[in-house]
Specification:
Number of strands: 10
Order of helices and strands: EEEHEHEHEHEHEHEHHEHH
Strand order of the largest sheet: 3-4-5-6-7-8-9-10
Radius of gyration: 18 Å
CATH architecture: Alpha-Beta Barrel
InterPro entries: AKR, AKR5G, Aldo/ket_reductase_CS, NAD(P)_OxRdtase_dom_sf, NADP_OxRdtase_dom
Protein name: Diketogulonate reductase-like aldo/keto reductase
Strand content: 5-15%
CATH class: Alpha Beta
GO molecular function: oxidoreductase activity
Pfam families: Aldo_ket_red
Number of helices: 10
Largest sheet: 8 strands, parallel
CATH topology: TIM Barrel
Structural class: alpha/beta
Keywords: Oxidoreductase
């Protein structure tokens, strides 16, 4: 059982990844971003997820440096993720994109680097670049984002190293049961983006009933559901009280019946693009 904010899952290569982190999707550069990330670190978060397309790596890097200095936290205690964008997919261009992200973040290495989307005809060359970065010890773990089963099968057919993580849209309206099972069978850690469905689940009566029973918020119930399903999760928030609330999910446990009731909310409904029909 996951018991605190510093608990980790062990990726198949032995690297430890926190179960719960903070995402910064669409958070613009500036004091609000820096304060949010520093607040997360101050309140015990150790995993921070960004991407080149978010255009906020410099602010995230500033917050990391200030957080490390002010709170006296070793860099190796943090788990920093970024992603290569679609326009940079290709061997040399992916290496260059990694260098650019590192420079913006002001870091010497990343803990996890992901291919952001499975652009047809491009992701295999990008993966070779990630394998090179990994073999050179410049990134601790490599993975993908938004890959479906057929993308993973196609990638692994030619890959030397299989992905360690697959970060996908995952919430009670999109449970991706088959993909989750495939990843588990292949030792790939599933990670959830948009776990709260961009707020669209926060008035659901079934979730509210379960939340009331545990004296928790709907957001806390969803995050707990993720964790009990063995899915790493990175809810986004810029407000300190919400950042703290999202992490207060280790003092209760959902019953098997409650887990099933939440599973039954699935409608295969996305708030983000469909990886098979995304206009890249």
């Amino acid at each position: 059982m996951i018991t605190n904010l510093q608990d980790t899952t062990t990726l198949y290569n032995g690297v430890k990844m926190p179960w719960l982190g903070i995402g910064v999707f669409k958070v613009e550069e500036g004091p609000e971003l820096v304060n949010a990330v520093k607040s997360a670190i101050k309140n015990g978060y150790r995993s921070i997820d960004t991407a080149s397309i978010y255009n906020n790596e410099e602010g995230v890097g500033q917050a990391i440096r200030e957080g490390i200095e002010e709170l006296n936290i070793p860099r190796e205690d943090l788990f920093i993720t970024s992603k290569v964008w679609n326009s940079d997919l290709g061997y040399e261009s992916t290496i260059a994109a990694y260098e650019k992200s590192l420079k913006k973040l002001g870091l010497e290495y990343l803990d996890l680097y992901l291919i952001h989307w499975p652009v047809k005809g491009k992701y295999k060359e990008a993966w070779k670049a990630l394998e090179t970065l990994y073999k050179e010890g410049r990134v601790r773990a490599i993975g993908v984002s938004n890959f479906q089963i057929h993308h993973l099968e196609d990638l692994m057919k030619d890959a030397e190293i299989k992905p360690m993580v697959n970060q996908v849209e995952y919430h009670p309206r999109l449970t991706q049961i088959d993909l989750k099972a495939f990843c588990q069978q292949n030792g790939i850690q599933l990670e959830a983006w948009s776990p709260l469905m961009q707020g669209q689940l926060l008035d659901n009566p079934i979730l509210q009933e379960i939340a009331n029973k545990h004296n928790k918020s709907i957001a806390q119930v969803i995050i707990r559901w993720d964790l009990q399903n063995g899915v790493v999760t990175i809810p986004k928030s810029i407000r300190e009280h919400r950042i703290i609330e999202n992490s207060n999910v280790f003092d209760f446990e959902l019953t098997r019946e409650e887990m099933e009731r939440i599973n039954e909310l699935n409608q295969n409904l996305r708030v983000g693009p469909d990886p098979d029909n995304f206009d890249f």
